[in-house]
Amino acid sequence: MRLAAYGFAYRGMVVKQVRRFLRAWVQNLLPSVVTTVLFLVIFGHLIGRELGTMRGVDYADFILPGLIILAVATNAYSNVTLAFYGARLQRHIEELLVAPLPAWLIVAGFATGGVIRGLLAGALVALVAIPFTNLQLHHLAATLGIALISALLFALAGLLNGLYARSFDHTSVVATFVLTPLIYLGGLFYPVERMPEPWQSLAVLNPLYYMIEGFRYGLLGTGSFAWAATFWVLAGATLVVGVLAWALVARGVRIRT
Q1: Rounded to two decimals, what is the model's pTM?
Q2: Is residue 5 over pLDDT 90?
Q3: Residue 41, exposed/middle/buried by CB under 10 A (0-12, 13-18, 19+)?
Q4: Phi, psi angle pair for 94, to nearest 5°
Q5: How far lies 124's CA from each of 42, 46, 55, 95, 149, in Å?
Q6: Alpha-carbon torsion angle 230, 236, 240, 241, nearest 10
Q7: pLDDT in tens, 53-62
Q8: Integer CA distances (angstroms), 221 to 33, 45, 62, 214, 241, in order
Q9: Distance CA 230, CA 145 (A)
């Protein structure tokens, strides 16, 4: 009986999250598509012709996996950040707190909404990239698995941002000053092995590096390390961030006080 009630509550939270970002789909989903087209046209074709190939593939094909996973991560993150902060700001988070719902279910409901938006944005980016690239699919399970766990990791991280944000300005601080540098230093536009030291050694500490390289292996079949390491790194990071989000929500940090 309790499981059925939990299932009904979980479905309600997810439907609410999906309806929220679909109501403004132009501003929520299209920016990633426009950005990807610009990157592919400018860097992939205009500049990429001068660069030649990277790891045996055209430069446009080389950067495509990073652009797709970038769309997945940023959309999952921003969706949960804004949704959770909005729930705090408008105080309808109290409706969830007074309901007999465990903290893990609240975290799961918000995170699932972010995962759905992240995967949808990634799929749209892949579709619009078809005319500009030779889109491949080398390993289906690795591609889908890394996209899913990356979306979940960033959705949970977005919940932490939404939990601690004191204003709408704070909802973009982490994405701008932390996530964006990590993504661009994680080998999105170049092979990390071409970076000078100490940046090359520091790249192994960047979880975004594993995410991009793992997804690149899934699509192109090329990578600079054992791709299975991606799952262990991302799974460990997701577990840590998920447990932290659950603990903070369970204690009511910034939502009960």
Answers
A1: 0.89
A2: no
A3: middle
A4: -65, -30
A5: 19, 23, 26, 34, 18
A6: 20
A7: 777 788 888 8
A8: 24, 22, 11, 9, 29
A9: 10
- Supply 156's token pair: 């949970």
Structure tokens given for 21: 């970002």
58's enclosing H/E stretch is strand 57-58
Q: What is the pLDDT of residue 106?
A: 93
Question: At 224, which amino acid appears?
Answer: S
H/E element, 54: strand 53-54
R_g (Cα) of the chain, nearest Å: 19
Contacts of 115 (CB under 8 A, 6+ apart): 76, 148, 151, 152, 155
C-alpha angle 16-18-20 in degrees, rounded to nearest 5:
70
**Interatomic CA distance for residues 107 and 60, integer angstroms:** 37
